[in-house]
């Protein structure tokens, strides 16, 4: 959540491509304010960063501290770059499945986040909090500016006796599926949490944008994230692959009448 808030000032809205503009059937905008296509298309794509094709689809915040080597993206957080971010820059993801093959930074203070949506509208996250001895990955979602709606699914912990290994030392695939009816979080293809919408349980609205970042949570939330120590490190999060499956009316019940929250 805070990661996205601190980013807003850094993103260069003007230079990014404006995609299809159409009459919205809700108010669907991506991270950059671009409107989504009126009729969402079904598509699937995957980026492995082994060639330059990703450059047409992703933008960087803190670009000097993002490198791509041997098909692995490295996001390096440092004193002047508090939140290096890989941002999917097209307004064509609708409901659907997003998957990331990722190895989060295990340094105290550095929180890695996979973020669907935009803080203040609707947001669905994975958050990796390395504070020992409880380093873990958690799922969370926000409806508008509300406080976290259901932090949960502490599905995977580092091994505190072994520098949080496991969670932090290997690449794992983290999936988030978003539909009008439910949100699902998956790790290595296995569902670890599912939230279903109900009359008293709105889901985030318009959580279509997508970014991956590591941010200096230690600066403001050290009780939660641990204190950032710059002499340790490096504070790097690695990404090997990103894929999306964008759903549309034909495959999902997009016209569902389930309430999905007002903000
Ligand atoms: C942190 O990264 C920024 C951006 O690449 C760079 O300008 C700066 O020198 C780095 N600072 C340190 C202390 O490494
Ligand atoms: C944990 O990390 C520290 C610093 O890198 C290292 O000295 C120590 O051996 C590691 N401990 C284990 C159990 O791997
Ligand atoms: C920061 O890390 C260094 C190197 O591990 C250590 O010597 C130092 O005590 C740490 N600082 C704090 C405030 O923990
Ligand atoms: C859509 O909803 C209808 C009626 O509730 C149901 O029969 C159908 O299986 C749903 N389709 C999908 C793809 O979920
Ligand atoms: C991963 C990466 O690009 N790191 C760079 C961050 O910025 C410093 C200073 O410019 C470089 O030395 C790093 O290589």
Description of the molecule:
This protein has a single domain, classed as Sandwich (Jelly Rolls). It contains 2 helices and 15 strands. It has helices at 2-7, 222-225, and strands spanning 43-47, 58-61, 66-69, 72-77, 85-88, 96-103, 110-118, 122-129, 136-143, 149-157, 172-178, 182-187, 190-196, 210-216, 235-246. Strand 8 and strand 9 (136-143) form a beta hairpin. The longest helix is centred in the N-terminal third of the chain and has 6 residues, at 2-7. The radius of gyration is 17 Å and the shape is globular. Residues 1-27 and 250-263 have low confidence and may be disordered. It binds 2-acetamido-2-deoxy-beta-D-glucopyranose (5 copies). One 2-acetamido-2-deoxy-beta-D-glucopyranose binds next to loops.
């Amino acid at each position: 959540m805070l990661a996205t808030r601190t980013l807003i000032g850094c993103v260069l809205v003007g230079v990014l491509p404006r995609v299809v503009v159409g009459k919205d059937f809700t108010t669907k905008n991506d991270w950059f304010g671009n409107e989504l296509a009126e009729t969402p298309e079904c598509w699937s794509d995957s980026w492995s960063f082994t060639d330059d094709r990703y450059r047409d689809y992703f933008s960087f915040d803190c670009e000097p501290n993002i490198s791509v080597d041997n098909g692995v993206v490295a996001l390096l957080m440092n004193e002047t770059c508090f939140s290096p971010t890989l941002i999917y820059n097209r307004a064509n993801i609708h409901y659907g499945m997003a998957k990331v093959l990722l190895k989060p930074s295990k340094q105290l203070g550095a929180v890695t986040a996979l973020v669907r949506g935009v803080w203040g509208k609707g947001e669905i996250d994975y958050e990796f909090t390395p504070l020992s001895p409880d380093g873990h990955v958690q799922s969370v979602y926000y409806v508008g500016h509300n406080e976290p709606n259901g932090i949960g699914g502490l599905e995977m912990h580092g091994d505190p006796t072994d520098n949080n290994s496991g969670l932090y030392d290997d690449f794992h695939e983290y999936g988030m599926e978003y539909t009008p009816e439910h949100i699902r979080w998956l790790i290595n293809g296995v569902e670890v949490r599912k939230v279903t919408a109900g009359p008293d349980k709105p889901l985030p609205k318009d959580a279509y944008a997508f970014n991956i970042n590591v941010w200096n949570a230690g600066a403001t939330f050290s009780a939660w994230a641990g204190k950032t120590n710059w002499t340790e490190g490096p504070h790097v999060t690695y990404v090997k692959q990103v894929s999306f499956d964008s759903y549309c009316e034909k495959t999902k019940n997009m016209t569902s009448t389930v309430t999905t929250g007002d903000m």
